[in-house]
Write a structure and sequence with these properties.
- This protein is mainly α.
- It has a single domain, classed as 3-Layer(aba) Sandwich (Collagenase (Catalytic Domain)).
- Helices cover 53% and strands 4% of the residues.
- It has nine helices and three strands, in the order ααααααβαββαα.
- Strand 2 and strand 3 form a beta hairpin.
- Helix 5 crosses helix 8.
- The protein is globular.
């Protein structure tokens, strides 16, 4: 990089940086830029056949830039407190069930076992965060759309900078409430289920337990098992990257994992 700064003419740097500016701004510019950006980056490179309608693209950008403000309205309209309570109860029940499975399937019973993620999991989170994000520093006006997108990017960049030197915020979410997805975060030892996925066919607060456990219950179980997969198992109950397994359990785990990998390969 140092040699390039010294050897490449300034006019070429200007061309290079201008291209990157236009390329990053293209999805937020006028129709010709949007269509050309889609044609190359999504159609040619990824095989996507059709550009989403503008209203859908606007919803996606609103969620990406102001997702927790949007989520506050979404949850208020679509997800009552009683639905959240029922979802939380399901998560609790499945955590207990997984813990009971571990206790009765031949793993080391010594006290060190209490450090396993399933038994020390952070309180499960569903629907929405307890503390909403403050967007007061994000200016929204009726000016150029692309400038609002740039301001949103700057807002998020500055928000990240303010975290430097501060205690870790364990209440922060990695997904916005309207997102139809869920995740396990090994660095926080937490599972999160946004309100967006807590709707049919995954979850219905008015439906029978059997329906909900067959739907969102499978998702909850899936996310919990990430605490024991080949990556999640490397983090302890506080999210620290450390080996907290006993020697016998780790050997047993690796043997079973290797058997599963070889078995799966043979089946395919």
């Amino acid at each position: 990089m140092n040699s390039l700064l010294a050897d490449v003419p300034l006019v070429e740097w200007k061309t290079y940086l201008l291209w990157h500016l236009i390329a990053s701004a293209a999805p937020s510019l006028s129709k010709p830029f949007v269509e050309e950006d889609f044609n190359f980056n999504q159609h040619i490179l990824q095989g996507t056949q059709e550009l989403l309608p503008r209203w859908k693209r606007c919803v996606v950008v609103t969620d990406r830039q102001l997702g927790f403000a949007l989520g506050q309205i979404y949850v208020k309209k679509q997800f009552p407190p009683e639905a959240k309570a029922r979802a939380q109860e399901m998560v609790h029940n499945l955590v207990v069930a997984l813990h009971d499975d571990i206790e009765t399937h031949g793993w080391d019973p010594r006290p060190r076992r209490r450090r396993w993620p399933s038994s020390t999991l952070s309180p499960p989170r569903s629907a929405n965060p307890d503390k909403w994000r403050d967007y007061s520093a994000y200016k929204v006006d009726r000016g150029a759309y692309v400038l609002k997108v740039f301001r949103g990017n700057t807002f998020e960049f500055n928000r990240d900078l303010t975290k430097i030197g501060q205690p870790l915020d364990r209440t922060e979410w990695g997904m916005t409430p309207p997102t139809v997805n869920a995740y396990y975060n090994s660095k926080m030892n937490e599972i999160v289920f946004p309100a967006g996925i807590l709707q049919p066919p995954f979850f219905d607060a008015q439906a029978d337990d059997a329906v909900n456990y067959g739907g969102i219950g499978a998702v909850i179980g899936h996310e919990m098992t990430h605490g024991f997969d080949d990556q999640g198992r490397k983090f302890d109950a506080q999210g620290n990257l450390t080996n907290w397994w006993t020697d016998s359990d780790l050997k047993n785990y690796n043997q079973r994992a290797e058997w599963w990998r070889s078995s799966s390969t043979t089946t395919r």
